[in-house]
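Hello,

Our lab assistant flagged a job as stuck in the queue for most of the afternoon. It eventually completed. Since we weren't sure the result was trustworthy after the delay, we are filing this so someone can double-check. Below is the sequence as submitted and the structure that was eventually returned. Let us know if re-running is recommended.
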Amino acid sequence: MNFYMTTEPMVQDRHWANSYMKGAMQEVASLKGRLLILPLAKIRGEKEDIVIVNSVSEKWTTQRVRGLLARGMRPVVLAPVSNISGVSTVSFDFYGAYRMLIGKLMAMGARSLCFIGAVITSYNDREKIRAFTDCGLP
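-- returned structure --
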């Protein structure tokens, strides 16, 4: 079985992307496998190969996952949620973490907080914004 990773172009510019990729490579190496990081068009995998889909936008993710499923491959989505039945997703609770952070800051007396740099197509960033608004911040 082979492991591949395909990464949304905008993810490559994120500060955390290299950490994800390094961690994924180390984990696959510990399983005596190898991880190839390639654009989706260059993945020539076989049925049952696993492809990690590293992305932040739902539309890009859904398109790639459907294409991989059609080829008989097994996608695993890293980061945003996937609403496609039968697809494994590794995600993070940005909403809960930001609610806790904002609550702590407000308990310390903060009344004006600012969230800068959100990418509206990013599910994770939308969850962070939702945490801000649910805490009563504009």
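-- support follow-up --
The delay was a queue issue, not a problem with the job. The result is valid. The longest helix spans residues 17-30. The chain has four helices and five strands.
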